[in-house]
Write a structure and sequence with these properties.
The chain is built from three helices and no strands. The chain is mainly α.
Length: 72
């Protein structure tokens, strides 16, 4: 699990933090929150889940559960 966290923070720093010049702590928090909630969790592909976007992965798992309930 530690490797996953390290990978996430590396990605966050490389893709968002290092290229920004935050003037205030609030500005940094707001920018990082927006990156995580609007991009990272919804649009960015993740190698840990088969290079799917998280919403696609969740939807596919939901469909598998529905099918298994109907056929089970």
């Amino acid at each position: 699990m530690l490797i996953v966290a390290e990978s996430f923070f590396h990605t966050l720093k490389v893709e968002k933090v290092y290229d920004q010049d935050y003037k205030t702590r609030f500005q940094a928090k707001q920018s990082i929150f927006q990156y995580i909630e609007c991009y990272y969790n919804h649009h960015r592909r993740h190698s840990a889940i088969g290079n799917c976007i998280p919403m696609e992965y969740e939807y596919n798992n939901f469909l598998k559960k529905v099918v298994s309930v109907k056929t089970g």
